[in-house]
Structures are given as C-alpha cells and as structure tokens.
Design a protein that fits this description.
It contains five helices and eleven strands, in the order E-E-E-E-E-H-E-E-H-E-E-H-E-H-E-H. By secondary structure, the protein is an alpha/beta fold.
Length: 238
Amino acid sequence: MQIYWTKINKIIDETPEVKTYMLDCPEGFTWEEGSHTHFALEGFNAGEKPNRSLIRHMSITTLPHENSIGITTRIKEQCSEFKTILRNMEVGQEVAIFKTHSNVPLKREDKNVYLLSAGVGLATFRPLVLDYLERADNVNQIHSLNIDSTKDFLFTPIFESAPDKKFTSQFVDNRKDYYEEVKNLAADKEGLFYVVGSDEFLQQNIDVLLEQGIKPEQIMLDKHKQQLPAFLTLNVSM
C-alpha cells in the first residue's frame, strides 16, 4: 500500500460549518470522478498499528485537471478528535492519502441519472456533475436532489440548473419535500439513482426507490461491492 504525504495548499470556507481542504497532487497519484480516499493526519502510522481515530474515509471533490485534490467536510462546534485537529490545521501542513478508489463513476449508458444526497454528501457528486457538463456523451440528462436542513447549500455555482445542458438541480430543507420528490423521480423506471449520505439516509432512500419499483441494479452507492447486498436487499421481500 502506497501512502502519499502531501501538503494543504488552500482552505476554503464553503459555509459556516463546511470546509474544503485543497491538497497538492503527489507525483503518480491518480483518481477518477466519484473517488474516495483514506485521509489521515500526522501520527496515524506512528505506532505498530494505525491509529484509526486519525483516519477518515473521504470523497475527493475535484477532478484531476483541477490540479488539486479537494476534500470537503462538515466540522461542527462539538466534533471528534480528528475534526478538531483538522479544524486547526493551516496551509502548508501535511496530511496523508492512500487506498483511493471509485465506487460511483458516472455511468454512460444513455439513461437519465439522478443524484440523491444529504448535506455534505453533495461533495461526492461535484466531480460527476463537472465531468458531465464537460462531456455529456451517453448520458441523457442529470437531476441532482440535495437535502440540507442548515439551508447553507453547497457548491451552488456548479449545482445550478442548466436546461441547455440537460442538468437540473434542486435543494430542499426538509424530509417531507425530499422524499416526495424522490418518489416523483422514481417514476422513471429506467433511470440510474446514485445515493450518498449516512447509512440511515441510504436505507431510507433505497426503501423508497424499491417500493416504487426501481431495481437494485439501478441504485449506485459509494460502498464496496461486498457491502452492497446488505443495503440493496434490505426490504426487497417485505
């Protein structure tokens, strides 16, 4: 396993609680849209065993041509040791990234794509949308639906509807409106549904989609292949 140590080159305050840490691209480091990485702080590998409290599984919010690795995360006032350290880090300090992989690249199968996310989960979809806006080959259209009760919606310049490019974006701040809209979107029985958020959020979305007749193979999750059955067969037989 190769560990890439790299420096923070910029810290962006996206909202009062959300920051994006832009990292230098180490030589030989590659990724694609929808990638996640293990993001670790200094000292995580100082002992015999890795200190897991200093490691987090994070989505990469940028594309390679942006020449920086973006990591976007919510840091609340009361937060973990990891987030407390991260909040106090500055440009020029080093972090580690390793085990980078994409479970949710943009499928180009001549279908409509629906991106369902909660809060900062939208960060996973930023590169997919950028990739689509730059090259729409074999994607009919994309619709993004995000729920964020803080109403501090992320990446609004990118997640702005562009009818000429067949991209629509919708933000809601409550569950009732959100799940009603998911049901409406599920009227498209051929669509591809990407879902990003907490495990509870994933399961609630999957339940709604399955109840509406969407097949498990149409639902894309940022999970390893061996984890998928536990989610996608959740209520199929109910």
